[in-house]
């Protein structure tokens, strides 16, 4: 069989994967804190027809003769660039201006800590029927953590809740401002691109992301500031995605043409017997 046919098949598979990633990006164009994906191709391997030869006194060198045998996926990256900030006016809507991720936790297990850039947080009613304190949680009920790894507590009767750029959670109770506010922690990673998506706008540590930094206050060590009353939108650029979709579609069509042409050539060879 012709090698070009198998090269065309590998191209079809790769462009299908690229279209899958583009489709996921477009479907999440309005997802808070979403980070888009990108597909990188590389050649598969090459068959050497003739090797290279070194130059001599009587003859110059000759380059190798190689036939490529298709392409493959080199990487599917997650682009962690910041998205645009949308004003909401809701105090518990938090956007990170700069680097960093919120830490959220379900329960008390250290292994159940996840990371997110989606800052749509809420107050729950507190634990028990007679609760006097509420906790700040995300849309899945996971607790937002402070720099000590503790849940962030707000009294039920608190008024004038505010969150500063440094992550300090301030409120007024009985006309008095809390004098020792909890600080929302942000963390960063040596390789954010190595974080693994687990759905729900969450990331988890992978073998190549590195461990999260120690609990740090916003604005420290290159971390961003927290902007209350705003949310970070998806970093998907629709114009770019539609352009990439056209490129992927044309690439898919070109590879189908390779297969069709190879089939026609094989048909001609079969017809030689007649």
From TrEMBL:
Keywords, ordered alphabetically: Bacterial flagellum, Cell projection, Cilium, Flagellum
InterPro entries the record matches: Flag_bb_rod_N, Flagellar_FlgE/F/G, Flg_bb/hook_C_dom, FlgE/F/G-like, LlgE_F_G-like_D1
Family annotation (Pfam families): Flg_bb_rod, Flg_bbr_C, LlgE_F_G_D1
UniProt-listed SUPFAM superfamilies: Flagellar hook protein flgE
Residues in Flagellar basal-body/hook protein C-terminal domain copies: 228-272
Domain Flagellar basal body rod protein N-terminal, residue spans: 5-35
Main subcellular location: other
Domain of life: Bacteria
Location(s) in or outside the cell: Bacterial flagellum basal body
Keyword flag Manganese: no
Domain Flagellar hook protein FlgE/F/G-like D1: 95-170
Annotated family: Belongs to the flagella basal body rod proteins family.
Function as written in the Swiss-Prot or TrEMBL entry: A flexible structure which links the flagellar filament to the drive apparatus in the basal body.
Listed name of the protein: Flagellar hook protein FlgE
Species whose genome carries this gene: Sporosarcina soli
